[in-house]
Specification:
Elements: H1 8-39, H2 43-59, H3 61-71, H4 73-93, H5 97-125, H6 131-165, H7 170-179, H8 187-194, H9 202-236, H10 251-262, H11 265-281, H12 283-286, H13 288-296, H14 302-306, H15 308-323, H16 329-349, H17 353-381, H18 387-394, H19 396-416, H20 425-449, H21 457-460
Helix pairs in contact: 1-2, 1-5, 1-6, 1-9, 2-5, 2-19, 3-4, 3-5, 3-10, 3-18, 4-5, 4-9, 5-18, 6-9, 6-15, 6-17, 8-9, 11-19, 11-20, 15-17, 16-17, 16-20, 17-18, 19-20
Length: 462
Amino acid sequence: MDLRRFPRTFWAANTIELFERVAYYGMNIILAIYLARRVGFDTASAVTVTGFFISSLYLLPIPAGAISDKIGFRKGLLIAFSLLALGYGALGAFPAKGTVIFSLALIAVGGAFVKPVISGTIKKTSPGDLSKIGFSIFYMVVNVGGFTGKIVAKALRQDLGGWLSQSNYAALQDWVRLHVPPFAVTGEIASRAAAQNPPMSPESFVEMLKWQGFGMQVICFFSMAVASVALLLAAFVYREPDRSGEPVRSTKQTFADMFRLLLDVKFMAFILIFAGFDLMFWQLYLSVPLYIVRHISERAPMEWIVAINPGMIILFQMPVAWAVRKMKPIGAMALGMGISTFAMILLGLMPTLGGACLAIAVFALGEMTFAPRFLDYVSGMAPKGKVGLYLGYSYLRSFIANAAGARLTGELVQRYVPETGVREPYKMWFTFAAIGGVALVALFAYNRFVASRAVGEEGTSS
């Protein structure tokens, strides 16, 4: 395999994607906790807002992909990273309920342009016989960014605050004590402090939570800086991929194509099935962070534990891609979904630190089996000039998963993994496993009754 066959624009797009993922996953890994502890939402609302933020981020690529096909990929990236830098900065600077919603809206719109543009660039710039390898490289880069973002987030959330609390920055220390919650030792705080391993004094526990709250604000500013670097790369390094030979469409035709695709029953059924996989995947950012800090330990390196997922993909994505290269797309995606469903069961059976680490590693194996083949399959279904549109629609599965599952997840976390009281996390994890199982059965039905006649199957199964 000669990687020199991939052109400069392919590598530029992957580099931009790397920075975007570092910014996004550094922020997203702490978002539910940030909303609950720094902004002031209750548990169910914090998880629900996080879920609806993610869902909007994956609905908006549909019009963003269509617009990018029309205005050009480079302009789409410039719009994206301008909004992302502004949104991340506002999220950190103004931790209040109203301004946080506005900030998340900016991030969602900006991120929506990145997804179809970068995925479309990968498709357009990968040599025809290396398309699957191109998407595997892209997916590995995504996970390098996700891994790096989480590692940095842990350092900023826990380690930076610990260092600053022992420093000589008296003015900063006074500001944190006055402006960052919690502001008093309550019965709940005392109970949580006593439940730590080893137990903490309530005063020390409050001090730790304050500095973690400040650290989460710093993460938002870190994401702003990284998004600004990506903006510079888009402006000065990225070049518009060759789009000669593609039909030129008017704005009216572009949006007509967008709505026409909604009426493609086979394609939409395909997307709906994989919403089940995405509902399981997004638990890494909706319920797992709260599960770890509440059920395992407040001092657990939550970000590092979740980073096992992208770390595994960095190490094993290419070997797994090679191992499943001869499998038909539906078979590879079904295998990935089955492995990921088993990971949810493991989380329920092993409610410990070691169990969480093992389950996340197993989930990563399923994810790296599933995801590259999914993107390659969808891009292969797209007619000329509509790759951005189809890849934009491919993210509709995450919208469905989070829009339908956000409130469910919030209620499950609040009921089975409360801040204090009796916890029964296995009931939550088995619920998510059941949803994955239903999706897997639906995929087998799709393969039996629909896929053999679906447009593009012949072209993507080789």
